[in-house]
Every structure is written in structure tokens, then in C-alpha cells.
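Re-run with default settings, no changes from the original entry. Doing this only to confirm the output is reproducible before filing.
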Amino acid sequence: MSAYATRPALRHRVGSRWETTTWAEYGETIDRVAAALGGLGLEPGDRVGLLSSNRREWHFADVGTICGGAVTVPVYMTSSAAQVAYILDHSEARFCFVEGHEQLDKVLESRHALPHLERVIMFEADGCDLSDPFLIGWGDLCSLGEERLAKEPALLDDRVGSIRPADLATIVYTSETTGPPKGAMITHANLIATLDHQGLRRA
């Protein structure tokens, strides 16, 4: 990774200009996310929902969750509140990342029917009452991870090292064309095989 540390990993628009995230910055943010989620009690194998449009925080949350040994559950942001509730409940998601108020409202509408859901992390939390322990803002999550890593710099080594090829990485739910959505269970071995097939994995 050091050979690519200063190279662009992502670009995103801020107003009228593009800003670049380097691979080093990408890796640091992923580490913060994984450390913070673990600090909040997330365990390997736990499910984490992702309810957002395509944005850089989505990628940080996805990879950070997986590096912590947990399992991501992406949800289409066009899903109705009932569809969101079904997938989060069926997967037994403990945490869920949401983009902003619109997606948060879908989760809150069915909060009573989601007994496993303990935390919602908001990418955009402006105007939200974050005194509710059910909610945490993206900035606060990253700060928590940074503080934890400062105290335990080797924190993630054991957790990443304990991940096995057969462990689940993500569950991708199908559309509802022939009934309720079905979760396709994707392992770490599946992801590595895809990278190898495309010639994208580097030593």
C-alpha cells in the first residue's frame, strides 16, 4: 500500500471543485471506522446496514465494517420504509449507516419492529438531536475511532488477522420480483476470487 499512499483513491465534489482522497487517507479512515465500531460493541459476524447514495463515506463505512470482521448489508436508498425494515430485520442488523434525514425517517418509522438495531450512524447529521444514544454522527464516529487507535495502535491487527476466507463479508439482497428479497451471502473468499479473476489483487 505504501507505494500507492499518495495516489488518488477517490474524488468527490465540494461545491464547484473536486477534492481528492489518497489511498493513505482512505486507509486511515477505514481504520477509524473499524476501531470505532468495535468500541461501540460491534462483534465479528454482526450485520451492519448501509442506506445511502454512492458517496465516499459509503465506501469508508463498507470497507471499515468488513475489516472489523462484521458483515455489511447494503440497502437501496430508493427502498420504502417497509422494504428497509424487512432487510434490516431479516439480516438482524445491529447498526445501520444512513445518508441523512430522508433515510433516517425510513428507519425510525419501523424502529419498533427492529429489535436487533442498536445504533444508526448518520453521514449528514445537521439538525439531528445526537443526544439520543440511538444516533451518532459520522464525525463523532471517526473521532471515536481516532481516539481508540491513539491508545491502541495495533488494535485492528488481531481482528483483521482473525478473518477467514469462509467468513461472510456482505449480504446483498435481491429485488422483490418473485417474493420477499433474498440475501445473497458473499464471503471474503468470493471477494478475493473476483479480484484475482480481474487481476486487481496486489501483494
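Helices lie at 23-39, 56-67, 81-90, 101-109, 138-151, 155-161, 188-198. The domain at 45-141+158-198 is CATH 3.40.50.980 (Rossmann fold).
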